[in-house]
Each structure stands twice: as structure tokens, then as C-alpha cells.
Amino acid sequence: MNSDTLKGNWEQVKGHVQKKWGELTNDEIDQINGSRKILAGKIQEKYGRAQEDAEREIDDFEKTY
């Protein structure tokens, strides 16, 4: 799954995103709206991850969907 696919399938994927990163609120999930960059920023903010680590987590997540 690439960034375009994430955005295109956001309605189907966002529940899985919230399950994976449970500290994200519904409002934050709505703000992300399929944007990989915003998702990475929210992961960094909520979990204290470095940008590279957040990107790696998203890469791993995308491989499952």
C-alpha cells in the first residue's frame, strides 16, 4: 500500500489505524484523513517516536493492508 492507496482506502483502514495506535482520538483520525505525513506526525506526538521510527511503523502497518 502506498500513500495514494492509504488515502483512497482511508474509510476502510481508519479503524485498523485506531486499533494499532489506540491513543489517537476520533478527531485526530478524522484530521489524518489518509495522509501518511499527518499520521506520522500524530504518532510522533502521541508516542514520542522519532520521525524515522514513525515512518517505519507505518511501513509495517501498510504491509498488512
TrEMBL record:
<dbReference type="InterPro" id="IPR050423">
    <property type="entry name" value="UPF0337_stress_rsp"/>
</dbReference>
<protein>
    <submittedName>
        <fullName>CsbD family protein</fullName>
    </submittedName>
</protein>
<dbReference type="InterPro" id="IPR008462">
    <property type="entry name" value="CsbD"/>
</dbReference>
<dbReference type="InterPro" id="IPR036629">
    <property type="entry name" value="YjbJ_sf"/>
</dbReference>
<dbReference type="InterPro" id="IPR026042">
    <property type="entry name" value="YjbJ"/>
</dbReference>
<feature type="domain" description="CsbD-like">
    <location>
        <begin position="4"/>
        <end position="56"/>
    </location>
</feature>
<dbReference type="Pfam" id="PF05532">
    <property type="entry name" value="CsbD"/>
</dbReference>
<comment type="similarity">
    <text>Belongs to the UPF0337 (CsbD) family.</text>
</comment>
